[in-house]
Every structure is written in C-alpha cells, then in structure tokens.
What does this fold into?
Amino acid sequence: MKLSLATPALLFSAISLLLLAYTNRFLTIAQLVRNLHARYKENQSHIIFGQIQNLRRRIILIRNMQIFGIISLLLCVVCMFLLYIEWIAIAEIIFGIALLLLIASLGLSAREIQISVKALNLHLSDIEE
It folds into this structure.
C-alpha cells in the first residue's frame, strides 16, 4: 500500500468528531457528578455513593479515550510531516501507531458505553420489581 499525504488527513475529521463526542460525554457526566455530590451532601445514601463511584470509573475511561484520540491525531500530523519530507518508512510506522491508538480509544469508548448501559439498567430495575 502506498501511503499518501491524504491518507492520514482523512482521519482528521473522524478523530475530531470523536473528540467532540467524548467531550460531550465528559461534560454531561461532570454535571451529573456535581448534582449527585450535592444530593449526597444532603442525604448520604449508599445508592448515590454507588452512582458517583460508577461515574468516577466512566470519567477515567473518557479521559483515557480522549488521550488516545489526541495522541492519534497528533501522530497523524507527524505522519503527514514525515511524508512531506519523504521519510516514508517512518511515516508508515507512525501512521500504524496512530491507527492502533484510535482502535484503543474506540475500544475504551465501547467499554464506557457498556458501563453506562449497566448503570441505567440498575437504575431502572426498581421499576420492574
């Protein structure tokens, strides 16, 4: 496969949209944590504490998703520079690493979604009983 300047550039929009989605998730969870923290101060319920712990795990996952996404984007830029100065072999390796980091970011995203769905199912389980 011949790696051209356009190949890593194609990932720019995809990674940028992913980072925007990750940021939106983070901001939503941050607001939930603030609200639950205030509720926990009023009523120290173990349910609220459990929800906060769940959100803490999700925040860590989102942070790691963002870090892997940002490094992937950075490596795409480095790859484009290396292609520009015609260091093709190194550019191919850097691009491969960028793809692996993007895969890791997406994998963490899938895990965060699983945790989120599990938390919602637990939250709704009292209605079904």
